[in-house]
Amino acid sequence: MWDNIENSFDRLPPFLWNLILAGVAVLSGWVLKWILSLVVRYYNKHQEFSLVRSIFLRVGKPMNHFLPLLVFNAILPLMKIMPKAARWLDKATGILLIISFAAVLIGLIKVAEDYVYKAYDLAKADNLKERKIRTQLQFVRKLAISMIVILSVCAVLLSFESLRRIGAGLLTGVGIGGIIIGFAAQRSLGNFLAGLQIAFTQPLRIDDVLVVEGEWGRVEEITLTYVVLNIWDKRRLILPINYFIEKPFQNWTRSSAEILGVVFIYLDYTAPVDEIRKEFDRLLTLTPLWDKKVSIIQITDASERTIQMRALVSAVDSGTAFDLRCYIRENLVAFIQKNYPDSLPTTRVASDAVSSVDQVRQQAIS
């Protein structure tokens, strides 16, 4: 029976035989992907993080090409084609395998990134560790993808004999060319090394609050060559990455997100300090913006016309501190306006001439 089947296949035209093998390769590749998806679903159905969804989103499309190409490359020797055409088809299949395998590796890197992003969520209040891990991960991910792309391109180029000979010829003249390229790429290399230093020494991290060039914002993205700062009014400030190595800047979340907020109020010398202090303490107890750690109000300066009261309060992060400062400022001003309006800054005028005129009027009346 098997002999009859084998003989019937042998009698098939070469074109039809090759078409059947190609169809078998595509179908078997899809079947392998389906089996792998079932295994992944089975082992991850009880986990909170949807690793299955991440794998299908990141690796699904590359696997649609890689597995059929892998099977097709395995059955290529069974095809009935001319030797010259077989060599070209084998080379083309090898190149496509390199490209699709690189895409699979990039997808796996993104799956690992999704998992780390889930494990280290920035939504929590004290997210110092999470920001540290994400900053390093972002740099490593971009570096790894760049290396995969470069190595894949090199593997494709080296598969051609002519390009290998050209490469050997270029290596003989690498001395002068290397010097020229070194000078040309000096700034780019400096940016790359600065990015490497920032990723591991971490003077700034993803979601850090910075004050740079007089602008307040959060670090939105760190690339191999530049940093994107999300300004409070939704503008984006883009700076070269070596800026943060060469120039000073303020980092409000370097070791902790906690921060102190300052409110200044200017009053007349007649202001009731004790009553204002009591109202300040009462206001803090009524708001969830205060983290219950620091609450101080003092007279910190006095000029010839006014006194300066400084309120010092603490909050869990800079955004909350800003809202808390506004809350304290607005309510203290409203309290003084309502209860002690005479304590607001005033200008007093005293004149000896006016006093003399008043004395004359009193004598005339009497």
Report on this model:
With 366 residues, the protein is an alpha+beta fold. It is 62% helix and 14% strand. The strands form 2 sheets. It has a 5-stranded antiparallel beta sheet with strand order 4-3-2-1-5. A 3-stranded antiparallel beta sheet has the order 6-8-7, with helices on one face. α3 runs antiparallel to α4, α4 (83-119) packs antiparallel against α5 (128-158) and α10 (273-286) packs across α11 (318-339). It is elongated and about 130 Å long.
Binned strand content:
5-15%
Mean pLDDT: 76
Low-confidence region ranges: 1-6, 167-177
Order of helices and strands: HHHHHHHHEEEEHEEHEEHH
**Helical percent range?**
55-70%
Global morphology: elongated
Largest sheet: 5 strands, antiparallel
Short descriptors:
366 residues, alpha+beta, five-stranded antiparallel β-sheet, three-stranded antiparallel β-sheet, 12 helices, 8 strands, elongated
Describe the structure concisely:
This protein has 366 residues and is an alpha+beta fold.
How would the blueprint of this fold be written?
Layout: H1 2-10, H2 14-44, H3 51-75, H4 83-119, H5 128-158, H6 161-172, H7 174-184, H8 186-201, E1 209-212, E2 215-222, E3 226-231, E4 236-240, H9 243-246, E5 250-251, E6 259-267, H10 273-286, E7 295-302, E8 307-315, H11 318-339, H12 352-365
Antiparallel strand pairs: 1-2, 1-5, 2-3, 3-4, 6-8, 7-8
